[in-house]
Amino acid sequence: MHELAMVRGIYDVICEQIKGHKVTRVMQVRIVAGALTGVEDMTMKLCFEMYVQRTPLQGAELVIRRVPVKVQCRICGNVYETGIPFSACTVCGNKKMKILSGDELYIDSLEVE
Questions:
Q1: Alpha carbon distance 54, 92 (integer Å)
Q2: Where in the sequence is the domain holding 45, given as residue range(s)?
Q3: Are 105 and 72 in contact (CB under 8 A)?
Q4: Which of 42, 61, 69, 102 sees the fewest Cβ atoms within 10 Å?
Q5: How far is Cα 68 from Cα 113, in angstroms, rounded to an integer?
């Protein structure tokens, strides 16, 4: 369950960001998670809910925006979305590719009072 480690990191970043601001409550946390991170939405939300109990983030809603895996063929330059495992290039059939998106995990925004 690597989601718990991710939640711990997200929590630490949020606490650092709100320190020094007159934030009384965090109402919503929006994160971006690429398909390659292996984040399970429900598990992440449950871990978040449990981890932030009795903290300034208690009651905050965690919103997860998913990003699909997008790759570029290193041979012909074709850009396409793929699943896991990666599929061959839809144009030339090659399997040499560069990952363009899908490995992201970051806090997009916070809604605070």
A1: 55
A2: 3-112
A3: no
A4: 42
A5: 32
Measured between alpha carbons, how far is 18 from 88 in angstroms, rounded to an integer? 44
User: In terms of C-beta density within 10 A (0-12 exposed, 13-18 middle, 19 or more buried), how is residue 24 classed?
Assistant: exposed
For residue 11, the domain's CATH number is 3.30.2320.80
Q: Report the predicted TM-score, pTM, of the whole model to 2 decimal places.
A: 0.85
Gap between the Cα atoms of 108 and 86, Å rounded: 26
Model confidence over 52-90: pLDDT tens digits?
Answer: 999 989 999 999 999 999 999 999 999 999 998 899 999
Q: How many residues does the chain have?
A: 113
Total domains in the fold of the chain: 1
